Amino acid sequence: MRDVKGRIHSTESFGAVDGPGIRFVVFLQGCRLRCLYCHNPDTWECHGGVEISSLELVQKILSYKNFIEKGGVTLSGGEPLLQPEFCEAVIDGCHENGLHTAIDTAGTVPLEASKGAIEKADLIILDIKDIDEEDCIKLTGFSNAETLKTLDFCEKIGKAVWIRQVLLPGYTLKEDKLRRLREFLKPYKCVEKVELLPYHKMGLYKWEQLGIKSQIEDVEPPSDEEVKKAKEIVFGVID
Q1: Residue 185 in 3-state DSSP?
Q2: How confident is the model at residue 239 (pLDDT cuts 50, 70, 90)?
Q3: Which domains, and CATH codes, for the chain?
Q4: What is the pTM for the complete model shown?
Q5: pLDDT digits (tens, 9 = 90+) for 54-74
Q6: Containing H/E element for 152?
Q7: Beta carbons within 10 angstroms of residue 209's beta carbon
């Protein structure tokens, strides 16, 4: 495999929520989005984190192979596709050792740069921040256009996709938006799963530590009943 330098924020050895099975999760450094609900604002700065080579990272991953061989490896962030060559090299190394790979991305990196890594990964976990473009810009600072192009590309090449959306009261947690999300996703055969993630405040302390004013510090997480209703709208059933 090629040896490519990249920057990572941190790793998690036994992730259970970032793809199928128990996974080694790599949080890559750097993100251009400024999501109002971000719980990792310390990953935003592209020159932060720690530099590491893809060979070194793969060796670290392989030290946990016995624990993750029925799960795999997830490249998260930050935005991993801001470092596409690094992602490709790590994925190649994982595949050479029989490990399943996933990329957790907002899909905002243009396909000219990101398609190679997307093609190599076994699974794309795609965060649709908001189904409405103007509201997506208000929520993240960026349009959702590239995200939807990424989804179209995955459909074209038959790449497995899990969709994620954060349920943020007053923003994405609206019945009409959830209905439009459901209808929008219906034609996509590549979408294997949709995850609705309730907004939480666990990362708010990082904003305070970084001296960044949160615009939603007074927004409370959704109630169990609100989450239940959202799932009923999107899935038609309550799990």
Answers
A1: helix
A2: very low
A3: 5-235 (3.20.20.70)
A4: 0.95
A5: 999 999 999 999 999 999 999
A6: helix 145-157
A7: 10
